[in-house]
Amino acid sequence: MNVGWIGLGMMGLGMASCAARAGHRVVGHSRGNPDHAALKAAGGGLDADARAVAAGCEVLCINVFTDDQVRDVLYGQGVLESLSPGAVLAIHTTGDPAVARDAQAAAPEGVSVLDAAFSGTPAQAAAGELAIMAGGEAGAYAKALPVLASYGRLVRHVGPLGAGQRLKLINNMLFAAHVRLAAEGYSLAERQGFDAEMTAEVLAACSASSRALAIIGDGGRVAENLARMRFYLDKDMEVARRLAAESGLDLGLIGEITDGFRPDKPA
Questions:
Q1: Are the CB atoms for 116 and 132 separated by under 8 Å?
Q2: Which of 29, 52, 205, 262 has the fewest CB neighbours in a 10 Å radius?
Q3: Are the C-beta atoms of residues 6 and 116 closer than 8 Å to each other?
């Protein structure tokens, strides 16, 4: 398929490269780096004109960091209006489900939108081992599936437009809770004189083991790893809390545990 890709950061570059290696004709666009050797090595191409990337594709994937950046790509840069009838827009950015719904309402006739949220690490993105939760019309999902499957180990249609983002935010709230508890555990171990790297090695073999525990304790760099995770979790938890408040949803214990993940609070 003809695939356009906007957003070639830590995750997007690996995902787009997987799509190219799977045989799709991938053309990427990046504001930050006009020369992505990895995408070229995988058989993909680059175009400095985001509108041109959109105009020539059957599936357009957007993988930037924030909702505001998605809106800038779609409306500020004129990408949405450049899509041709029959094209599918897959929004990979984690954020407010309303962004995808608004894009569908504003899209040219015949263009379909998916909110294709995903979970995984940069290494998993490069290896094609992400978990992808897609919301939208079944026909649009079926059309985009060969592309999504090129970088997704698990790909599921989880409901109507917006459902992918809502399920991803639930995942991220659980992960944030695990991260918070793992950080507390390492802090407790440190206060009792245990070496962080040794603690991580031992707990990884015990019943307390989890992905969050491994990520936070990697190399014994607990503070550094926690700060890196907060760069993402602070943003996502702010979105989740706002959506819960707007819908009158009580987040209960998970809300209490993750309350510390806010941009204006110290680690």
A1: yes
A2: 205
A3: no
Single-letter amino acid code for the residue at 103? A
Query: What's the pLDDT score for residue 35?
Result: 67
Contact residues for 16 (Cβ-Cβ < 8 A; gap 6+) = 3, 5, 8, 26, 28, 39, 42, 44, 61
Q: Which residues contact 238 (CB under 8 A, 6 or more apart)?
A: 262, 263
Predicted pLDDT at 34:
62
Helical packing angle, 138-151 and 12-21, nearest 10°: 90
| Burial group, residue 142, by CB count within 10 angstroms (0-12, 13-18, 19+) | exposed
Q: β-pairing, 2-6 with 45-46?
A: unpaired
Region 2-160: CATH code: 3.40.50.720
Which CATH number among 1.20.1540.10, 1.10.1040.10, 3.20.20.70, 3.40.605.10 corresponds to the domain 166-257? 1.10.1040.10
- pLDDT means over runs of 10, the chain (267 residues): 96 97 96 79 94 96 96 97 98 96 98 97 96 98 98 98 96 95 95 96 95 93 92 91 93 93 72
Write down the pLDDT at residue 263: 77
Query: Which amino acid, residue 185?
Result: G
CA-to-CA dists, residue 60 to 3, 79, 94, angstroms: 6, 10, 16
